[in-house]
Amino acid sequence: MLLKPNLENHCFGCGGANPDRMQLAFEQDDATRRIRGVFRIGAEYQGGPGFVHGGIVATLLDEVMAKVSRFEKDIAVTGELTVEYLKPVRVEEEVTVEGWEIERNGRLRMRQGEIRDSSGAVLARGRGKFVEIDPARFRPAAADETRRA
To answer: What is the pTM assigned to this prediction?
Structure first.
């Protein structure tokens, strides 16, 4: 199942309502319970010459691990993110980003993610602690300000 950017979401990574977004779209693999995306990250996201900025590498891993919530249809936000930068990610090089859950304990969700090049070599690895939140209590600050106006 293809997970396209939501046209009402302002998220930098995957939101469709943000004109400066990365426009990340992922696929949900129900059989393996993994989220996957294949991307070419442009030079506008470069750090050192020819390489994707480390913050963008972290963003890719955070996004793919967050999307794992789709399997349980819950909402979980990043509580902690650890990234291992193993090899440089080159701009315009096709990479596969994949995320999956490794543990659930109450509201805590432990997830892993990887970025691989076309040969399958792991370029970066992430581990995240995500915390499930109550959607009824989740309300962006911007929406609060709009309601008050």
So the answer is: 0.83
